[in-house]
Amino acid sequence: VSAGPASPGSPRIRPAGVDDLAVLVRFNAALALETEGKTLDLEVCSRGVLKAFADPDRLRYWVAESDGSTEVVGQAAVTREWSDWRAGWVWWFQSVYVVPRSRQRGVFRALHGAIRRVARASDDVVGLRLYVEEQNHRAQQTYRGLGMRPGGYVVYEEIWPERFGGQGDGSSPE
Ligand SMILES: CC(C)(COP(=O)(O)OP(=O)(O)OC[C@H]1O[C@@H](n2cnc3c(N)ncnc32)[C@H](O)[C@@H]1OP(=O)(O)O)[C@@H](O)C(=O)NCCC(=O)NCCS
Predict the structure, then answer these.
(1) Residue 103 gets which letter from DSSP?
(2) Were both Cys, which of 56, 69, 97, 173 would link to 27 (CB 3.0–4.6 Å)?
(3) Which atom from ligand 1 is nearest to the alpha carbon of 104?
(4) d(CA 32, CA 105)
(5) Counting beta carbons within 10 angstroms of the beta carbon of residue 64, is it exposed (0 to 12), middle (13 to 18) or buried (19 or more)?
(6) For atom 34 of ligand 1, which residue has the closest CA?
């Protein structure tokens, strides 16, 4: 899926492919450590990303390449939720990460914009959502800055670490 043209000087956004596996795993590990103090099992995460590539209906990734180079500096993924109330899909952002040295230069703005354009072009998508850690104020400011507003929900969960060899802290990976 084409994510649309980038304006001059902005990062190039493209769907991720198997060649990006190592970068996506590295970014996911950095994201988990930075935002939740969690050390991901890289083998499990690789398996998770590969399963998504094999079946993009599970999760679809986009990456941002820095202006004028093919270096990947950011990622975002989308998972879907069927809204019976609205008879359409809600796209959920997941695994949002930009490398520290490229922050506050519009990388996530470009990822969000490209993904939003694809969603807007799909008649059966009714909106965008995401969940974010309560303490992650920078990310919350970012989402606000892009026009999103708190949905008014609290996330409840019951995660089973023995199913994926996780750390048993009862919390979910991003
Ligand atoms: C959150 C994150 C993805 C933002 O990416 P980014 O590329 O730096 O964001 P952008 O530069 O595209 O900023 C978009 C808008 O968000 C707001 N924003 C971004 N960073 C901000 C900050 N540190 N403080 C306040 N507002 C901020 C601004 O409104 C900005 O628009 P503007 O620059 O035109 O004013 C990045 O900081 C990151 O990877 N953080 C660590 C991982 C993380 O928290 N992921 C989210 C998990 S839910």
Answers:
(1) T
(2) 97
(3) 11
(4) 22
(5) buried
(6) 106
Q: Ligand 1 center to residue 140 CA distance, Å?
A: 8
Q: What is the pLDDT of residue 166?
A: 73
Please indicate whether residue 129, judged by its CB atom, sits closer than 6 Å to ligand 1. Answer: no
Residue 167: predicted pLDDT: 62
**Atom 41 (ligand 1) nearest CA:** 97
Per-residue model confidence as pLDDT tens digits over 22-55: 999 999 999 999 999 999 999 999 999 999 999 9
Chain segment 80-117, per-residue pLDDT in tens: 999 999 999 999 999 999 999 999 999 999 999 999 99
26 CA distance to ligand 1 middle (Å):
19
3-state secondary structure of 140: helix
| Residues with Cβ within 8 Å of residue 33, at least 6 apart in sequence | 39, 40
